[in-house]
Each structure stands twice: as C-alpha cells, then as structure tokens.
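Tutorial, part two.
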Amino acid sequence: MRVLALHPDVILLSSNIWQTNCVVIRGGDECFVVDSPVLPDELEALPSLLEQSGFSLSGLLATHADWDHLLGRLAFPGAALGCAETTAARLRAEPGQAQRELRAFDEAHYIKRARPLTLGSVQALPVPGQCEIGPHEVGLLAAEGHTADGMAIHVPWAQILICGDYLSEVEIPVLGEGGSPEAYAATLERLRPLVAQAQFVVSGHGPVLGSEQALSVLDEDLAYLEALSALGASAELPDGRRSKAQRTIHAENLARI
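Running the prediction step on this input gives:
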C-alpha cells in the first residue's frame, strides 16, 4: 500500500489491488476515512497509521456501495458508515451483496480475513449537502452513472475532490448495475467546476491528478460516453486506456446499454 500526504489534513492510501484509493480527512479533532483499501494487511495497518499521524477517527464515508469501497468496517468494526441516501437505499435493497462479492474475490485470490464484513450502523446523508468535520465542512455532490447511487466529496480548505469511480486515468467509464451513459455524463459536468478549482482530484482507482490532467480525462470520458451511445461497439476508447482489460469493460458497457 502506498501512503501519500496530499495536505496536512489529508492522507491518501492506495491499495496494491486495482490502485484502489482510500482518503483520510482531518478537521480539527475529527477524522473521516473515505472508502477503503482492499487487502487484509492494508486494512490492519489503518488504525496504527491514523494514530501515528495524530488523526482520531470519527467515522467512515463511502462514495458508493460497490464492495471494494465498503471495507473500512474491517479496520474499524465499531465505526458508523456515512453514505448518500441513494447508497443507503441500495444497501437496503441488496442485503448481503457486498459480503458475497467480497467472499468471491477472497476465494479467487486465496485471501483469508480475520473477520467477516458487517456494515453496522449506516447513516444516510442528504446529497447534495454538507457534512461537518471539526471546524470545517465537506461538500457532498450527487454522483450517479457508474452505478445508480453515489456521491463525490469536496474538501474545500485542502482544494481536494474525491470523486469515487469517476475521472480515472487507468480505467474507462464503467457502467455498473443501474448506471447509464447519460447519468454518468451528467455527473462529470456536475463535477467540472470543482475539478477546475482543485489542486488534487482523487479517483476511486488510479493516480491522483492535478486539475488540468483531470479536466483532460473528463473530456475524454465524455467523448467516449457519447461515442458509446452513438456508435456502440465501434466507439473508440480513450488514448492510453485501450488494454485488453479496458476492452473487456467496454464490452460489458455495451451489454448494459
């Protein structure tokens, strides 16, 4: 796992699986862990990393309900999980889905965990809206299209945007269950003003981007989504994201639409 300080109040942790990003935000004496790394040793290291950094956990936040973003409870079993109202609704509608997908991943990769995943107390947050953290507030923005649920998180005093599974330099737009090109494109346009003002943009997967890099990815993703709807299988994938794995995602996107 790679650890990088983006700001005195913001730490990035990038998993060795899928470059999955977890972000720790501090505001005064409070601290949120957003999303999660994936591997057991990475999750086990989280509490001591926070302690060494002088961060005191207040709660967990998840950008959406895909299982690889929900594993913070394995590191902090007693912590409450905050998420968008759409994500809370999805979790209620899909009881046990995240746990089943985690078990399938672990079985495929011969991974053993110390305990099963339980989501515990889930707090539905109004989105769009604000969430207090110490003397500050983080902004919550609706982010649907990848799935039917989700939110992006804006950390204004650090000029950081955490956008979930959008604006990835390593992955084309992924249309999961309930996602659509139209909703995905609407989310990108909603994020554009904050991307333009950000010092760092953190996607769910891949390297942290500066504003100009992220705007370039945003425009490439919009062009891909438009071509996907208009041309189907003939749509050209963004430059630099044309590997076999990305072509497989493209085929799955075609099946979705």
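DSSP finds seven helices and twelve strands in the chain. In part three we will examine how such features are distributed along the chain.
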